[in-house]
Amino acid sequence: MTSSPSLLDTLRQVVGAAHVLTEGDLAAYEQDWRRRERGRALAVVRPGSTAEVAAVVRACAAQGVAIVPQGGNTGLSVGSVPDASGRQVVLSLRRMDAVRAIDGANLTMTVEAGCILQNLQAAAEGAGHLFPLSLAAEGSCTIGGNLGTNAGGTAVVRYGNTRELCLGLEVVTPQGEVWDGLSGLRKDNTGYDLRDLFIGSEGTLGVITAATMKLYPRPAARLTAWAAVPSMQAAVDLLGLAHQHLGAGLTGFEVMGQFALGLVDKHYPQLRVPLWREAPYCVLLENSDHESEAHARALFERLLEAALEAGCVSDAVVAESLAQAKALWHIRESIPLAQAEEGLNIKHDISIPIARIPAFVEETDALLAREIAGVRLVNFGHLGDGNLHYNVQAPEGGDAKAFLRDEEERINTLVFDSVARHHGSISAEHGVGSLKAAKLPRYKSKVALELMRAIKGALDPQGIMNPGRVLV
Which residues form a coiled coil (predicted)? Predict the structure, then answer.
């Protein structure tokens, strides 16, 4: 249904004319971060409070106008931009960026959905606590978007995805009502878990406007090590040793393929990537210790001694300072940027049971090499929680645009079918968005999809919340 001329006037009355954008350069709101798609919005509306969000939703619902909730617009699955119809309202939460409260006794922080993740981390640190969610886009992504996609990042092995870090939500329903679930209770068995229903729903069930998140004590020391390993199986074996020696202190465990690190070395030689020429994979480990740096270093040394003796590590370096540790993490975080410098590529965000990852990689590497001439695989990711970014770079020297146009669908099918054979998921932390929505019927059970559609129909009977995302 198209809007009547009065809708924009109503929205201006609700949030102020300055916060209803219909003209000028709206690319920051209408184009996804990877520049895969550019839509056209009826308007970009920027409410400043939960009450304003509710009023905007009620106005749109009254006229059947679709709403696209948006945070930092840093998603990788095209889930937060409008379609090309010019009839959807982008609901930007960026103005709602306040830290409402920090409760040191409860170890919680209540923040609005538009709060940038890095600012949330800084506020926690300023209060003497740790908020452990960390990912490459933390300088621009928002906690509402993190919750909407159930983002992961580099510390999932210890602290879990965003879902595990959330104790409560404030949500505006598709009817414009407000559910206040911000109690921060760790135990509340009074019915269905509505919080978990909205987390990971990508704005298709309602608009997350605020959240109560868990805080943790700051560790006394953090140490980072970089290890060269002779195979993916060796990396999995090292992970087992790390769990054994470090226990809950293991907060990060990243794997990086040789070609992925070679791209960083090629495009950012100043970063001085260590050990990458010597082994097919390197691993980045982080140990957070609540006793002392000396204790942390002793644990790390025993771990690496055991790993060298077991043959799952060929060489390793331990960062001697915070600056060195940051430099090592910067190398890991530069892989996607180096990929972009190299040219167009096909991204996959998959999860596999950790024990099956070596077999998956061996099988799928060989399959793609056999099927796609000149294929280049950029394999890296969060091995500690079974999440790989198993990306395919266009062949060197070829027409990258033509490669994507002609081969993307076939490559996706080859990779996703292999993921299914190994009992994995085609989306680990980036969400489904519109890029993978049509794929779900092939890779998710019929019963699961029927339940999801029943929930969507019950909560959003008009179908106005982020249509075309997750379910099609």
Answer: none
DSSP codes, 141-180: -BHHHHHHHT---TTHHHH-SHHHHEEEEEEE-TTS-EEE
Cross-strand pairs, 222: 288
The three-state DSSP-derived secondary structure of 326-379 is HHHHHHHHCHHHHHHHHCCEECCEEECCHHHHHHHHHHHHHHHHHHCCCCEEEE
Task: Classify residue 262: in a domain, yes or no.
Answer: yes
Q: Answer yes or no: do 110 and 154 share one domain.
A: yes
**What 3-state class would DSSP assign to 1?**
coil
pTM over 0.85: yes
Both tokens of 214, joined, read 């868990």
Q: Which helix (H) or strand (E) holds 301?
A: helix 293-310
What is the extent of the structural domain holding 105?
99-217
Rg of the Cα trace of the chain? 23
* 188 SS3 class: coil
| Residue 410 resides in a domain | yes
Element (H or E) spanning 232, and its range? Answer: helix 232-246
The HSE-up count of residue 224 (CA atoms within 13 Å, CB side) is 21
337-360 pLDDT, tens digit per residue, is 999 899 888 999 999 999 999 999
The size of the chain, in residues, is: 472
Domain boundary among 92, 127, 149: 92
105/282 Cα distance (integer angstroms): 40
